[in-house]
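thought: fold this chain, then report.
action: predict
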Amino acid sequence: MAVLGQIRKRSIFLIIVIGMALFAFVISGVFTSNGGFSTNKPIGEVNGEEIDFESFNMMVEQAQSAYGLSTVNAVNLAWNQGIKNQAIVQELDKLGIDAGKDQLEQIISGDQSIVMNPLFQNEIGLFDFNKFSNYISQLRSSNPNMYNQWKLQEQNIISLAKQKIYFDLIKSSVIYTNIESNIQYHLENDKVNIEYLRIPFDRIPDSVIQIKDSEISSYLKSNREKYEIGESRELEFVFIPDIASEIDETNLRSNLELLKDGFSQMNKVSNTIEDIIGFKNVNDHTEFIDIYSDVAWDSIYKTKQEISSEFSDILFGLNVGEVFGPYKDLNTFKISKMIDKKSEGNLNKVLIADVVKEIIPSNETSNNNYRIASQAEFDANSGLELNSSDSTLFIDSFESFEDFDSGLPGYDNSRQVIKWLYEDKTKVGDIKRFTLNDGYLIAKVKVFNNQSLPDINEIRGQVSDIIMKDKKFDFFVKMYKNSNDIESISQDFEIDLERASAVTQNDPILVGAGNEPYIIGSSFSLDEDETSKILKGNNGIYLIKLLSKEIAEDISISSAISNSLSDREVERISTLIPEVLESKAEIVDNRSLYY
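observation:
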């Protein structure tokens, strides 16, 4: 939400400010290099002001703790909000805008959670700012940690108060005159009733149009800002998952069979064979689960619907004492025993005990997976394909356009791959093996791409469609250069004329055709019963016949209407200002060096 929006919606603004806001991005010191952190490069800069890593990292950790975000998402949240706010702070300093005790008191006095607190009220129940100030002063000795938090928050409030002054100045400069308000009034209230013919572009055969590669190339150059591809880095990789083998799963299932039925084992203390009672016969299932299960027992009675397993019907139908399994449930094997059944009101519930074994690779399997990954890395460093020694490995590729990409899609913990890809020492042809959460990834740098326009063959269909519409329009105009008879053209294409009623320029929608501002705007220039020239719209070629036009009666524009339009414009500008200031700022982004 725009800063002005926070300020104007006072309740939200005060909750953010007084309620110990999570991100005090605009407090003094957060985005300057006075935090004592020393490295060759700061984490970033905004118009030459270095961003202190320690303070920034504190914001990241708070975001992770409060919202459960991943590191990359938390960094992005802190960065994006911080950059915008810092750009505003610098603008305020440039303009010499300041705020002090009066603004602080005004903001605090507007927060009902503070105003209604008896601690800060006088003898007749009214808020007393002096009592609030005394309370804060007492915190210095009674709770230094909370006092320090408040001092940071106080600076934040003052900074936001400065922003309020800034946006109030903007608001005072945005004025809708009565003439402008009258224009807007007519845009919203003047109406036309039209009859129109819409000829979809696809009704003109593509075969009558030819598009040359040179035309596509020329279009791309003319619209470079829209199609230009930024700098990127490409890599190819193979992934060796470190997962259990079929043999591992078979062994796990066999071990659970033994646990269910009972088994004998050597007691290393007494050096004798001892018999272990199986789960189906054991009396103390709690102790048995503690010893042999990878997951603690959840001793809660459950309804059938609460049993999260594809075998819920079987499990719910077991008799007391009966055991089911081993069976596979997601990434585990289980044996389950019915302990008890009961009814609670109209609900039947059961108590089931589970011995759970997680499906994880054995040491032998993990060692083999590591060997495969090491061999793939060795082969690649020897100039061979990544899958030379194992044709079952799939060679995939990824193109990164940002040095702070979160990672390779579908691979957890792969941010480290992107970080390596953008390191200064990483060159084309370099190879590296990474240990991810669930396997090994061997990556090879393929190419560093400069900023460029896409290859014609990659963009041909998209651009050809745009050029095709223009050429079909020109073709149509030449075909009917001596005629704009809407009814005869309608018959030529066997397309019925359509009507639209009470259409305004403020909402230029044609039912069935979509947004057509140029077509609707053109209809307002026609006289009654006049047919337009051939027009090119967003969704086809048009001819319009004006049936009638209703011009709203002029009214005396009141200050309330002008003020309402001014408020609307202020809100629009207020949303744009942080984005504009950020776009004009010189930003150095070194996040990829730290995260």
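thought: worth noting. Confidence is low (pLDDT under 50) at residues 1-39.
final: tokens above.
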